[in-house]
Structures are given as C-alpha cells and as structure tokens.
Amino acid sequence: MKLRADQTGNRGLPMPLWLQGALESAQAAFISSLVVILPLLGVWATDGFQNRSIDFLARLAGQTWLLVNGVPLQLATVNIGTAGLPGSGVLSLIPLGLTLVPFLLAWRAGRRLARASYSDQLWQAFFGAGLVYAAFGAATGFICRTQDVVINVWLAALIPLIPLCLGMVVGARRESGSWSRLIGVDAVDWLARTSQHSRWAGSYFGSALKAGFVAIMAALTLSALLLTVDLLMHWTDIIAVYEGLKAGALGGGVLTIAQLGYLPNLVVFTLAWASGSGFYLGVGSHAGPLGTAVGPLPAIPVFGALPTGQLDFGAAALALPVMAGLLAGWWFLREGENHFDEWLSIKIKARWFTAPVSTVFLGALVGAAAGAMAGVFAWLARGSAGIGRLTEIGPDPLWTAVWVAAEVGIGVVIGYSVGPWLERRQKLREADLDVPAYDGDRN
C-alpha cells in the first residue's frame, strides 16, 4: 500500500508498516462494531428497550462489543425477576461464535500485512495494529462503563488483543506458507544441526500432537452432529418457547443471532456431555449423559433442547470421544512414524511385549494432547452470566480434560491396532479394481 503524492495517480512515499497495521486494525474494530450495533439498533428502533435514549444504546453496544472480544463485565446488584433472588457478579460467558468476527477480520489483516512486509519487518505492522486496537478497547471501556456495569479499562485494552493477535498471526502464517518466512528463522537448518535421536523424538512427539489435534477436531465435529440431532428432536419445544416470548419478528431474529453466537459454546458443552463429565447450567444444576438435574432456567429457546431426566441410551454417547480417538490412531498409522516402538524393539526383542507397550504409550500421549485441548476449549466456552444461580455455566475444564483424554486414549489404542487390518483390506480392494477384465477373444 502506498501514499499517493497527489490526485494524478503518481505514487508517493511508501506507507509505513505501522500505519498500515493501524489502518487494518481500525477497519477490524469498525466492522466488528457494526455487527454488534445493527441488531441492537433494530431492537431499539422498534421500542424493544425501556430506555429510549441514544446514550443507553451506545453504551450497550460498546459493552456488547467488549464481551464479544472477551472482556468480562462486572454487573452491579440487580433484580433478576420474581422467581430469582437479587444478585450481582461478573458477566464472562463469551459468545465464541461472534468472537470469530474480529478473529476473521484480523486473519484478513494478517494476510495483507504479510504481503506488504518482509519477515524481519512484520513486527512493525503488528505493533501499529495492536496499539490502535488496544486504544479502541480502552476508549470503549472508559466511555461505556456505568454504575450498573463496571469495566476495567486495562482489561478492555489488553484482552481484545488476544483474538486480534491470534488472527493476525494465523493469517500471516497462511500467507507466508511457513514459519521460517514469517519470523526469518530457518527451522529446517536448525533441525539439521540436531542429532538423529532428537529428530526422531521430535518427529514422534510432533506426530502425536497432530494426532491429538485430529482427535479433538473429530470429537467436536461429532459433537456438532449430535447437537444438531438433539435440536431437531426438540424442535417443537424450542418453537414453543419462541411463541411464549412473543418477541416479534425482529426480536426473535436478534434472539436467534445471540443464540448462534453461543453455538460454538454449545458444541463444547455437547462434547463435555458426551465425554461423561457433563456441564453446569447454574450452581447446583448438572447435565450429563446418565441424567440431568437442573433448576429454573431463563426462557431461552435453545434450553428447550436440553435432555432431562434419566436417559436410557445416554451412556452410548460415551462412544463419541472413543470414535474420535479411533480416527486419530488410524491417522497416526498412515501419517506418523512410531519411533518409540522402533527404539523399544531394538532394546527389547520380545515383540509380544514391545508392541502393546508402545501402543498403550501412544494412546496415553495422544489422549493427553487431546484432553489438554479439550480442557482449553472447555475453559473458553464456560463462564458466568453474573446474576443469581447462573454464575457457573459450562463444563469443568479439568474433568473434561480427564474424561476426554481417557476415552480418546482408548480409541487411539483400538484405531492403531486395527489400522493395519483396515489398510490391508483397502490395498486388496484397490488391487481387485486394478485387475484387467477378461477378454475371451484375446489369445
């Protein structure tokens, strides 16, 4: 990107990288703000809020933007209705689906900045982008704080940098094609200077980490499918809640957008539910595959799909992480190299001992990687609504990690063990397809 000297089209001085980064982050902040403001503006225009002032709408939009970017909001004492008790707390339940908006905008900015700079200059663009985004967050937190919603200005400045920087790094890495081009360090040359044993160990642990990523992605995909089936099965209950709210077309649309914003959270909730650890919907309320016991819940349509009571086939959901581990074990057999099994076979000649030990160790390693990732997702998806009993919503990260690690590890052992048989059958099928057809006229 260049700064034009005049209106004739002649190129002037090159735009400084820090300025280009600042403009990119300003665009991300502006567009993500519009995504938040437009639905709220529609509700405000149709008398959806009791407070009709512009100041209220602007502060509400700013508070929502901060929550979307991960900033917790401290709620003052409020009355939560005739069925609840007065309460206060921290609103920290982040709508991860809406957080994808600033992340994707930062991903786009990272690609553009990577094209505009050399590997040793990219930090200048990132510095300018982070400075402007932090200033925007701090200003939003300072202006939008009220007596009812207290906002820490430092958190408002620093926490939004997490999705911004993560998105820009991923986008820049996607554009550059390798970490060596991105940061100016030749990883291949560095690895070449290490010993062969170090390269084997690094390759083994790297493949196990990738297999853990395959397992958690497969588990989340299967959880999304299970959530879709559950929503379809309880569709009439969800529609009944919509009809009971009588929010109108616009109000129902905004409510649907808000629920879609929490859809990734619900997928992680489903994974925790299927793993056996379950999740909480308020203090003292727990939902799991073997039974659900919850207290009074807000009139939110998606809660109509919550399985209740004793579930006859709930234990079958425990097979979901095992299936994900089976796919990860098969993937490791095809793409990875089991150097630990090779090393163990050299040290101990008894194959009947080394084969199961190396397979169990692989299952434990991949399971631990997948469990750690599941714990991180559970930590991101959980939070507090800040009022009454709803100060604890979502899965417990530690127990989710433990359950997913154990079940994925079992699946990896099964997948890696039956993988050679599956590969053999696939090769035999391909060989049968390559056999030429019989031609009776050929001599």
TrEMBL record:
The chain crosses the membrane at residues 25-44, 89-110, 122-143, 149-172, 208-229, 249-274, 313-333, 353-380, 400-419. InterPro entries: DUF6350. It comes from the Bacteria. It holds the Pfam family DUF6350. Keywords: Membrane, Transmembrane, Transmembrane helix. This is Integral membrane protein.
